[in-house]
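Troubleshooting: if your tokenizer reports a length mismatch, compare your output against this known-good record of 359 residues.
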Amino acid sequence: MAMSSKLRTKGSDNPATDGADFKKLDRDHGAAFLEPAAPLLPQEVRDSRDQLIRLYKEGKVLAGYGLFEESVGGRPVEEVFVENTLVAREGLEQLFREGPMGSRSTVASAPSHVLQGAAAGQSIALCELFSPRAVDSQQQPTPVCRVLVVGSGGIGKSTLFCCKLPYEWAAGRCMQDVDLLICVALGEATTIQIASAEELFASSLDLDSDEKKAVFHFARANPSRVCVVLDAVDECKDILERASPFMMKLLKGKTTLCGLRTIVTSRPCGAIHWLAQQCRFDRSIEVVGFSPSEVSTFVDKALAADVASNMKEQLKENTDAACLMATPFMAAHCCEEFRHSGSLCTCTTELLQKMLVKL
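Known-good structure output:
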């Protein structure tokens, strides 16, 4: 797939600009209207990009998001995904850096404690994660290369950044100034075996030794055109420190791929205190739960129309159940339970007990 395109600027009669390399980006997502297009990609990089696009377009809902195969699990992402709200929090990283947090403290469930001293924040779209950040109106926007994503367990971080984001990128709807998007699940045992940038790319791509070198050289020369998602650092921080020097350098942004676009996700637990002290991030994002309207949309997508209608009617009169479903993981299992029993779960303990019975 050729990644460089020549676009004539509309209404331009200037020979200096006619035929120049430009890329039109989506103005609705706050991106620039015209941006210099990517350099001509080496064949190995084009082949690698095509591999990733095929992989991500075939992507199904992650197991943690929809464990119930009869309703959501295994269906195409765009059919079932309900967007979580992302909020850019100025001061959030500094808050984590100042002191460790208890494992039960979460951004979603205890905002008065966790977000005290942090700015209220503004919602931000997936396509805006790496948009330049304006510190104040008097300064020029600063570039963004490294993004920290924080959210409580089950809030949808993995689904959003290792499922939805790759799908949108592969479909040409997001981050089209990125040529390679690599997702790494840090909780997987094979992650600690990644000892170099070449192996990092090979973890998602079928590459021979020459192709590994070609992709690495492209990434080193064009780091801003490569994005790596490092998911769930809170699950494996200790073992990475002991056994994976390269992955630790990647987390800290201290590899030879200086300027690599990086997204790091974590729960707001003790690991993130360490992360905020050790690493520099240009933007901090909070993943918040579903709003009532998003819960309703999720129910419509997860269940048959008649069952969904019945569940939504009951949710109107049961605020405890509605609050429980603000977390996508819980919403998925609440829908599954309602599909089988026709009753709502009103607390986490009740839902988990019913889940365990089915195991």
